[in-house]
Amino acid sequence: MDFRTDLALERRDLLGAKSTDGIYSESEINDNVRVTRIRVQSDEAEKQLLKPKGKYVTIEVPAFSDDSEIFDGRLDVLTKEIELLLPKRGTVLVVGLGNELITPDALGPKVASSVLATRHISKELIRTMGLEKLRCVAVIAPGVLGRTGIETGEIVRGVADRIKPSAVITVDALASRSIKRLGSTIQICDTGISPGSGVGNARKRLDKSTLGVKVISIGVPTVVDAATLTYDFTDKEKSQSVFVLPESENMMVTPKEIDLLIDRASKLVSMAINRALQTTLSTEDILSLVS
Description:
The chain is of the alpha/beta class. It has 11 helices and 9 strands. Strands 1, 2, 3, 4, 5, 6, 7, 8 and 9 form a 9-stranded mixed β-sheet that branches.
């Protein structure tokens, strides 16, 4: 069965003994956070993993639905991993992908609404506020094709061509092959993203080849496709094949507490992005500026 997942970690696990040269990984555990870094370095590895060559970081945390305290060690870890992939200088464009009217797909827009935009602040005002080291950041939530009539890639490319960022950060909902990873996993990569892939409506990729700059993608799994879920809930030891109704092939499943999951995940991801971009500001300072 071809399991559907956006996570490089799950793709690697599915390969098992078939894993090829060119896929390298390392893991570490800090308190309640497990970090796995995967590097895809060869053409053959790219074909087997079904992921472009580059770096993939998977951060496994306690489920957002179970824990209201999110500004703890996981925030420090996520901030550090984002910061390691960012260029040291230059404007950064943050793009919140997805449809804010559909809860499992609302992660990107909710994150974008809490990222500190600074590109519009004049240098004189920055000096007056004592924030000379504030980094230039622009933020957009381009919506979806069905509401705007414009491809997401066209909007992002147009903005990037205009403001000339040194990097683009995209945030979007992802799909996982395991229901256990929903709301408890964050993936960061430097290979870009296909907008809408998490909800089965992938559009043209946003990456260095299409935007001309490095694209860092951050995502949280919010859905599992029904066919994968059916397979997991059957006795796989006794049956090599599972019959799945054709009607379920395009059906997505999400947890009942998805509202809570999206709310907490968006707060964690947006704060980590803010801290990675504005390294001279404290968490308290950022909260006061975005509230």
